[in-house]
Write a structure and sequence with these properties.
The complex is a heterodimer of chains A (54) and B (479). With 54 residues, chain A is mainly alpha-helical. Chain A is 46% helix and 0% strand. In chain B, strand 2, helix 5 and strand 3 form a beta-alpha-beta unit. Classes of the chains: A mainly alpha (54), B alpha/beta (479).
Amino acid sequence: MLAAAAAIPQAATPQTPPPDADLDSARELLKSNAQQIAKVKLPMPTEPAFHFKA
Amino acid sequence: MAKFTFTDDIFFGSISEIAAALAKKEFSTVELTHAFCNRLEKLGPRYNALALSLRDSALRKAKDVDRDFKLDRVRSPLQGIPYGAKDLLAAKGKPTTWGAKAFAGQVFKEDAAVIELLDKAGAILIGKLSMVELAGGGGNRYPSASATGACLNPWDRTYWSGGSSSGPGTATAAGMVTFSIGSETSGSILGPSAYCGITGLRPTYGLVSRRGAMALSWTLDKIGPMCRSVEDCALVLSVIAGNDFEDPGSAGKSFHYAPQFARKPDEITIGYAPIDFDESAAPEMRAGLQEALKLVKSLGMSMKEVEIPDFPYNALVSMIIATEGASAFEDFIRSGKVDELTDHRQARGLKANLDIPAVDYLRAMRVRALVQQAFRDLFLDVDFLLAPTKPNIAWKLTDRLDDTTPPATPPKSRGLSGLIPAGNLAGLPALSLPCGFASGLPIAISVVGRPFYENQLIAVGKAFQSHTDWHRKRPPVTE
């Protein structure tokens, strides 16, 4: 191993938080995203952007 | 013939320069491939940029190419050029890990479409390059979320290269490959290109086939070139673009690089927002960004102040990636293999995404249709949008990526903030151009255009690079 490689700070090692905390925060984020999207005024005839062609 | 000594001028050479040297027989394709493989194998692991060296198959291919050169058979401008591919792309008979240990044994029987096209063009695939595991699906908390560890930034090894096309960013910037192929769902080409000081092109959705690429989001995924100049991006795009009946998202369009048909600067209007180059950017970046803006203004194009249409872009893109990614990886998540991911936040994120209500996803896709219309309207007034690619320099290796604090006071204007998720939602092409340094790390601007407007986008990028040399800077990398 090169000396320079040994000198660099190591990337943050993932620490294991309580699993449920991460799952809960992931669900919270999804809820918050859904709430932000729900605030957009959406005309009823608007169809989803499926068969997406730019 | 005296043995050729490969120096940085070759390792950092452009496609045209290397092609010219091959044509003049200054060295053979086999010698060139040897030299690049040596460099990639030596530097790649030092920067966590290499997923897999493909030396043996590369040398076999190089011999074939040398035979073609002897017969004066030139298949494309990329003939004999060594490149790397993000490990999200299948290479026939070789492990394709998608950046995750859980997929270490995965081998496909066919090459991805882009690898197949580059092979036909005579380019030499010398290695698979590292990436964030599963391209960050689920949301990684740490730069280390990869089977190969955090990919180090070649300008400062205490910083991250960005993701998810991490290896392509670092390997291209450090001259380990002449160009690379990355992918973007929302920011994965533009981000690492900006952080590593290279030129990245995100093509219009559907222009480049994704056959043989890992799917994270069927309606957002795109494959594109990561190079050291706009000219190189154009050459690579002309090879990899085109219709593919086996990619349901294929737009049935092709791309032919034709600079002679590009409009003149005085026929072009650029939309921008001054706030992006000032208040919204990190303080240390502002001087460099403002210099870049000044230069663009001096190129003779009309400039018009604009503001991005008001939509929750991050929420929209997150919702769509989360839902489509959960579906693409449903079996992996339900089997429990998801817990083998390095990043626990990412694993939990993928699990939570299985429970997204269908109406939430459909609402996001309906709002996306409004986003597309809003951008069609915006492009009635301007031809391109210009903004800093990222408002910050690269992350430190020790940073938590989910640790984002909103500004104490909201900005006076939206500017073009959110242009990366917005451009991806609308399927727009974009080019990231290095424009200076801040705190010793690269900074970049992005130009975003109308769908399938790549030829003109490239012309604007080339005009910028003909007046700057930021894209020619070489990071302090020694073998």
